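Issue: copy button drops trailing tokens. Both records pasted manually instead:
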Amino acid sequence: MFGVAMTLSLIFLSFQRTIVLIPFNLKEDKCSKVRIIEFLSCSFFLLVLFLVLIFISTYFVFPYQEQWLLAPVLFAFLFIHESFRYLFMVSKLYFLPALVSVVLVSTFAASLLFDGLSIKLLINTYSCLFALELIVVSLFITFKKANTDEHELDIFFWFRDTRNLLNRNVQSISQLLLVHSPFLVVSALYPATVSSVLFIVRSVFQPVQILIKSVEAIDQRKLASIKDNANIFVKSLFKKYMLISLAASLICLLIAVYLFPVVYGEQAVPKLGDLLFWAGILVCLSCSRSVEMLLVKKNMYKKMNSLYLLSGLGVLSLLLLNLFLHLQVSPSLNIFMGWLFLAITYYLIVMKGVDNE
């Protein structure tokens, strides 16, 4: 159930990231009170919309109240936490998102030691942290002083530019094709052991993605203030993200090699090849994130979305081809090839230089 709840949350969070988080972070006036209110207004609308969709998709599937409540509560917490983190990144309250994360991890660790992790505990923890962050955000915007030269408030600001809004939604859908669709195909068509190994091997490298997302959010703000030579800045980011993700992936790889045989049964232990492929996937994903900042800043959604669609369709085609031809090829290799194509193409784009569409 937790896996289903997390998958649903990640799918809808990808829309939050492309529709409001990244555009907000790339705004030069993002620290103004009016812009923050507009950002929160759009976030609240998306939160309500996505919660309704998650409620509908889980209420009739899971018969017990505790189970169907987990997905919407988990999503609500993750949604507000991401908004919380982006909002306070450059303020004096920057430490609060990290503090909430520490509280969450400590709660889980304590529960595992004493009672075992339960659905009820998860729901209560997420609900309390969601309420806490919501209160802090409300107090922050209440007491924040407005500048004298701020523009007029427009709570529908993020929905005015329908062309960019459509592009950002297409961006989310195209990314889902590469990020989540392979897991759905493998879960539906491949043997259960192959599917479980794929989910296990991905989970060990999740800390790499979390680390890159944190660094990326800071660099987006730096990029927002750069008017000239943004291409040179992104070239340096590409190399920085490659080194950071490579080092972090190697650490995760070493931990997995020694830990997995102890934690999982023999059939569920991923092979070394799968671990190496996923280390490569996280490196390619991290490098791609650096280039996407520039493409969003330059409104180059068409090129970015086309590349994601091409990569995602390529991975799905390879996965289906393996089944029809009965090839003994690891799905991890197919997914790695899609991300490698995307990273190489992005690198060539940055080396060549980009102009607005």
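Record 2 (pasted manually too):
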Amino acid sequence: MNTPPPLLASLLDPVPALPAKLAAAWDGASAWIIQYSVWMIVAAVLAAVTVTAVVQSRRSAQRRWHKGARLVAVLPPAGLDPAAALAGARRLWWDLPGLAPPRWKRLVTGLPHLAVEYHLAAGEDLAVCMWLPAPIPTSRIDAALRAAWPGTLVLDRATSAGPATVDSAPRAELVVTGGIVRHERPEHLPLRIPDPRTDAADPLRVLEAVAGQLADGESAVVQIVARPAVGRRLRRYRRTVDRLHSGRPGRRSALASFVSVLVRELMEIVTGSKSTAASHGADDRLARRLDPQHTEELREIRAKKLQPQWEVALRYYAATSAHGPDAADRVRGLADSLFGAFALLAGRNALARHRLSKPRAAIEARRMRRGALLSATELAALAHLPPRTDALSNGQARRVPAPIDATRHL
């Protein structure tokens, strides 16, 4: 009787040959590790040194950015209507993505960010400030602001007459409440953009109303930190949008894709049909494409993708120097009003607030790790100059009830 070849015998009965193969593979791997152990140690040390050098370089660069940063006050021009305010903001955020440094420089020093801040104080108008790190020249921002809103005045915050706030008070003497705002749904879904012909859905209109309700010793700050979205984050976002337009899930890992394909193949083997999963998937994609609501959603997602993208972090806080049982409730109500200003943008997507343990310290640090992805138009709806119409300057504004403090002692 002829004996089968070793290869055929191992295929017919793989269990007895498995321990020998594992032992041989282990011996080979051990010999390879011993032979190249020196090179492996050198490669590991070089990788550790490179990562440490890059981390230290980025930290030192960020310290230089904050050390040489400037805080400027932006004074809007007179007669700025809501349509011009939003149109200028769109021009501004379409223009500023050019501030991103080259790829090699981003790898070494990171990507700088800027901050737009709205300062609210009792008895003062809404003040708009911009925090600029050292790599961003003030002249570049000044030119962009004047191009967006002709007649805008940019002043150094240290020399400009800003509103009298309680921010200079020690932290222990203040009751502070605040939070951070993030996307409620996946970031490829856009926010609702207000109609530029009216200021009914303008978030700054709500902030101005909150500023009119502040009493002595109360203040509030809303901060929008933004940097251009470039590199891997932008490529991943665009791949997600392309998958949605092809009828596939927005985001899927390689492991999930492998498991899905494996399960599909096993089901085809068991059922003997190759058209079950494919036909149902094609029918589902066709039905979704024919759905008018889904088609409109895809159109808005595509329109967002075609614009410059920004990573945005939105923080806010309200503070008071008063103490007592009502102080915490007071600042909590003010903080809720601040968040309500941006809840007006809810549409396909919405902004949800989250707890921020030390809101005042986080806003004063002006740091950014990871933000939500917004288009230039969405960022313009959040960060723009407040309208200054002729009706507000010549006494033709509508009458409003007197503040509570004015009638409290009557």
